[in-house]
Records
---
Amino acid sequence: MLWDWGYTWEILPVLAGAAIVTIEATLVGFVIAALLGLAFAILRMSPSAWVRLPVGGLVEFIRSTPLLIQIFFLFFVFPKFGVTLSAFTAGFLALGLHYSTYCSEVYRAGLENIPKGQWEASIALNLSPWVTFRDIIIPQAIPPVVPALGNYLVALFKETPLLSAIAVLELMQTAKILGSENFRYTEPMTLVGIFFLLLSLISAAGIRQVERWLKNRRG
């Protein structure tokens, strides 16, 4: 039998529970990526070379090394330095750290597109750098880069199967366990593909809604 519907309905709740773990890792990882990426972008614009160059080097190093190695490093190497992380924690931290470097480039492009006059006006008004970024620069820089950030959200979501390498019970790991128990891989792997497709489409639709909301707000 190529496809067993009875087995499909039996494993569907198990995979649905694993999908929650995948979604949690995606959302927490993306929040870290979005916030840390913004911090990296701002620090890379610092007039001080002592700040700008080390941060730029760190961003390039993280972006240029494989995500899987970073996951292994956090989970297997950190305990050697006295920092022990659960598999889930190491997973979402690695996802967030890795994608923060990509988000930082997106933010940097948005920040650099702000007209120079905005910065000069802030200096003329004697505004502090914190107030300038919070109230003037960031509200103008973020909306145009939302589509690119949304693309990285979807990309991060599709990277979550890598967490199965450290035994996080997300969708892919759960599907592999179900398949090995019954020697049936067609149903669990197909359902995993459908889950990823549906959640990616939902995410893309949500991103488009955010874009329209931002355009209406600016309009």
Note: The longest helix spans residues 5-44.
---
Amino acid sequence: MSEKHVDGVDGLKRSIDWKQGTAIALGVPLLILPSLGYLPLYVSAAAILIWALSTLQGFFQNTAYAEMATTFPKTSGVPGFAQQIYADKYPGRHGKGKLIGGFTAWSYWFGWNPILAIFALLVGGYLHELFPALGAAFTEYQLSLGAGVVIFGGLFAVNWFGLKDGAILSYFLAALSLIPLVILTVAPFATGHVEMSNITGNWWPTDWAWDMHHILILFGVFGIAHWSACAWETAAMYGPEYKNPSKDAPKALFACGIICLLLYVLMQASVIGVLGVDGVIAESVSPLIPVAQAVFGQTGIMLTVVIVMLMAAMVLIIQTAYLGSSRAMHSMAVEGNLPRMFRHTNSHGTPYVSLIVIAVFNLFLISMGNAAAVLAASAIGYTIAHGFSLFAYVITKNNPAYADLKRPFLAPKGWKGVGLFFGLFNVPLSVIGVVYLNSLEIGWTSTIVAFGVLGIYVPIWFYTQHELKRHDKEAAAIRSSDHDLDDEAADLDRLPDPIR
């Protein structure tokens, strides 16, 4: 266990380049899977347009984050610079700036953290549907829980040895994930299974009206899509661990963004083109399975191989979320916004306490048994985090105290307005929309869970401030004791030699 500053921040080590950062973040395209059947339920084939616009929103937001990642290279991405900026804006060791920054980071953590549970549930669902023997012997919940234990435990073991080894695993998993995604996206077009009339003939719901009800639904749909399509900002999380953060962070961000833009648009188009809107809604949990069956036949080795590869690819997005949320917790502890135990790293620079807590928390979330419900709760935290993070970016552009900071990557002129626009789009508009959408679809459980988890941060933060004060008093007492011993030694040095 080590807390000393190595060459990153509080034990984090500068060990990866932009290619490794991209590989870790390449699990992000998998985030479309829980929503492939969800968005068409509300906006039909226009879901294709929603994904395109949401990914472009990611480019606007992540351009601001790329500037922040290079301006504050020792902070861990979005939660790191948000904490620093709000603390600077409202100074005071235990003041409201620390609370606002800490809450932003906590919201971000809650946005990413449940991905482990969501994809463990999806893996369990795929296993239950693909392998009848397993489906007969175990319930879907049991398979999901077992998948969670195995995946979380395996990733903990691999990442115990540092981010560099986790990045090596990500190279393998990235290839494994992109292959089935590309196959299931491109093959239906190549084999003629995509019927364009399924898209053009059902572009927008027939009962759609531009009233307040449907506008709130649209904001909610954008909030859910934002959770997936903008998530490649995670490539900026590893600022303290990039060898050359001023160049590595922007390269990793934009490389991942281009891949997401292509895959998100084409994948939704492929699924709707093959199954039609009604077919996608009927298979809302795992629409890629009937697409694969349409292309490769109802049974066969190729079908099984592609689906197994897809499930293996889900391990990559779980790894992406696992690493990103653990760095968020570590960053919060370093900034004094979570208890000191979350600062602990092992000799390889791994924040292992955070990894353990995240794994246990997600095993609990799996008990909700519904990936859509977990996602809906998670999206509230994620959207709040990005709203406040973009407001933090605006602060750095307005505050003269930041005027002289080196900005190796500088967003285009006028980006302050872009940041403010999307900050307000996220908070309050998309947050209100997601809450409204939740109330229509799955009741109030997800919203209650979301605001419950977000709200519990306040007493945790006050406990942390109490812990810091106690630690300061203990440190001051030790310094005072050392000073008294030094004075006593000095008095002895002044005594005449015979007496000594």
Note: Confidence is low (pLDDT under 50) at residues 1-7.
